[in-house]
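Need tokens for this chain, all 887 residues.
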Amino acid sequence: MLLNELLCISKVPPGTKHVDMDLATLPPTTAMAILLYNRWAIRTIVQSSFPVKQAKPGPPQLSVMNQMQQEKELTENILKVLKEQAADSILVLEAALKLNKDLYVHTMRTLDLLAMEPGMVNGETESSAAGLKIKIQEVHCQVCYDLGAAYFQQGSTNSAAYENGREKFFRTKELMAEIGSLSLHCTIDEKRLAGYCQACDVLVPSSDSTSQQLTPYSQVHICLRSGNYQEVIQIFIEDNLTFSLPVQFRQSVLRELFQKAQQGNEALDEICFKICACNTVRDILEGRTISVQFNQLLFLRPNKEKIDFLLEVCSRSVNLEKTSDSLKGNMAAFLRNVCLGLEDLQYVFMISSHELFITLLKDEERKLLVDQMRKRSPRINLCINPVTSFYDIPASASVNIGQLEHQLILSVDPWRIRQILIELHGMTSERQFWTVSNKWEVPSVYSGVILGIKDNLTRDLVYILMAKGLHSSAVKDFPHAKQLFAACLELVTEFSPKLRQVMLNEMLLLDIHTHEAGVGQSGERPPSDLISRVRGYLEMRLPDIPLRQVVAEECVAFMLNWRENEYLTLQVPAFLLQNNPYVKLGQLLAATCKELPGPKESRRTAKDLWEVVVQICSVSNQHKRGNDGRVSLIKQRESTLGIMYRSELLSFIKKLREPLVLTIILSLFVKLHNVREDIVNDITAEHISIWPSSIPNLQSVDFEAVAITVKELVRYTLSINPNNHSWLIIQADIYFATNQYSAALHYYLQAGAVCSDFFNKAVPPDVYTDQVIKRMIKCCSLLNCHTQVAILCQFLREIDYKTAFKSLQEQNSHDAMDSYYDYIWDVTILEYLTYLHHKRGETDKRQIAIKAIGQTELNASNPEEVLQLAAQRRKKKFLQAMAKLYF
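Here are the structure tokens for all 887 residues:
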């Protein structure tokens, strides 16, 4: 807003693109205003590309969230406009580099004069003496820096932009050298500029003969890209003598390699130790403390190779003739402490007998070290004796908060998580570490209880363990989820019975998921204790326990999937049926499965299930008066008339895998879909006859939602078993009802193929009923495949000659016509074809029809078995040909 005001007051014509204006011909204050606006635009775009760590907010407040959302949308809109204009802004700044006259910027005095007498002052503000004078060299310097940053940002998608960025950054350095200390208004972050220049040297090595020698940055970058890690180690060892690479850069290389190692590249473990050892020696020489990372890598798993390499690095990092006494003292203290930290005397002897050790430590210091090692008490070797109790793990030495938070995010070991939190709380008591990652999500029904824990460390630990456990379960990393939940259960058992029950519930859900994703997929029944725990959860009557809806859903679905119908129908307590809608639904489904083989009169629960689902799919009608005074009817899609919402019902059904249960619920929705008055083409389904044929209040049912649900359910059931012919017929009927005839034929053919070994056996008549064949005939007719229509007419129990003859009369057929004649076994149809071709004068096609009639196996005098065999063979070949066409 401020810069737009400056453009207005500086006489920039509104509606004119800055790129179309010649800066050299504009008044100095006008040109300066345009430059300021476009430099700000470029800087804003570059700044927006930097990653920003999002602070996790506290308990949500609606007004604050709305305000934050509005601010975010406003910022995004501004950025969108600036990015669209970015190319123009760059052209404007490039044009500014051609200016050779000093510019002026408005001051408070010139602005006041403009406000008082704009007409009279205009001349003065445009003169060379008005406002604050800015030397053109300073303008060029700042513009070059901004352009360099813009080109560098574009380099991620256009590598050629790095070359432009390099040119602008090095020109900025030249101009800063020219201006020197005389600069009044040019302020550029020299450290950031140096970083940009180094990055450009790596990304775009100069072709100048003077810079043929690669910098250490470039060498490291090239080695990392090519996987030549040994060369990186050599560069780091050499750098321990020159100190040319910044410590932060060396640490970033180590972090990158550690991340690759943690992603499963075990070959990098050794490289990580060697790089860490190089960095540690550099830290020692510069008087910094040893990192916890190095101590863990060396002392937890010491071996001869690690000690040999460490001694090599130490030897090559110290020039005994030139190194100062303070650096030698640092190295000597480091070697002494390494000896004190090692348990195995063999490794201690390797160090104490090394030439560097003997040179750096005096005789008295070596004797003192030996005495200390003799007197020290034996310590527990952690790598041999792992910690067994959750509360007995000592916290390690502190490192900086950023590194620890990074480790906290990556770790899935509950014992390590506790260690890190103890260290973090030892450093600061003001932070809430459960907010470190916005990926840590705990259901709101739990978070209120957890965040109410008074002890900060315990609160953070419980929250993070649960969040990580839930995430591990969601990504099917069940072993880690079990560890995290077990640790959390042990922790909360001490102080919160409520949270203890919560964790028991979550561990039950985890065990269900583990079984279903593992041996359950092969059909192995769950252990009896798991079934007992599920029953225990369903019957639980503990007050004030936060419960997640998904646990109840999964438990009921689990019982249905493993056919525990006896329990659901006879043993479920009455209070459960009243309070838990999923148990009610499960009981009705189980009872309907049990009653299915019985006579139709005994299927009372089927009627009850029908009424429950109809109520779920019903909508509440609301009357609303419009602006014209008329009353209109509004349908409330997700009504609360039923025991649950339709979306909740659909979510529950998608947890079922038992074929009979899925078939029943699918046939119910199909019947509900068919009840609709304006339905033209019914959808067929197995067991559809068990449902009522009418609904008293037809207007209350949301049939659009029912149709969507049927499609969703068929898609889901076919994902469970794509070879169920009953479900495939339903999918075909849906496509037929929605005029998608090619897709309908695909599924009709697929239904026949799966139950006939790809048509090598006869398709059962209860699959290819007359209704299915008639729909296939209609599909072919509407696709203009008239010969296929005639052939399919033979499949009916009574051949439909009228339809067959009518289709053969069509001359505009899109199928292979006469090449299909070999698939016709009915002589009457073949004789009609012969007559038709003779009448049309189509001699060649008439000969093909005559040849087909002349086959001995079609002779009417043949026994019935021969004729049926001939028909069956032609059916098989025709359906296989159709399948190849539509699959």
